[in-house]
Amino acid sequence: RTICKSPVHSLLGSRDELIGAVDRATTYHWSNELRADRLGWLRGHILQGQIIFPATGYLALAVEAALQMAKGRPVQAITLEEVNFLKALRVDDETGASIIVSLHVSWDDEQVVQARFTVDVYSTEETNRSTAAATMNITVQLGNPDEDLLPELASSPSPAMMTELDPGYVYSHLAELGYEYTGPFQRISRLRRSLGQALAEV
Question: pTM for this one?
Fold first, then answer.
């Protein structure tokens, strides 16, 4: 079997296509080396002094993989369910981190595509073992965009009943606890809270 590479996506990487493989129509694999010198925004997400791949990064990987899985067909909606973040992915400032993204398609017709999404992280140790960092189920609804597809937002409490918080103070307090969010990860411009609820403007 021969492995050929598809065009490279900055986050997802390149897709490994197994020519002659029996399962190539139902299973997709991508591989990438996540490096802070190539993805500079990673340095804005530091926890306890280490660069940690953000949870939203896994969601971005899933959406991009879903779009590629659609094979150019129009996509109406992408639903991510049973989202599990299993392991913190540390991106070493010098060596980066190696990931393998897999999509196992269980259903594909003219209206819907369903798949199981997994991100595996390869250890930098000599054992070269991989561990799952995130898993989720993906459903791609095919068709033209529909503005009325999503439900309306639930009603929020009156601003008069909420307490204003200073976003700068919140970020500073988080930094003292080891959560250093900067650059694209410090985008909240207004923050309000009440009992059991919070509203943020980004």
Answer: 0.85
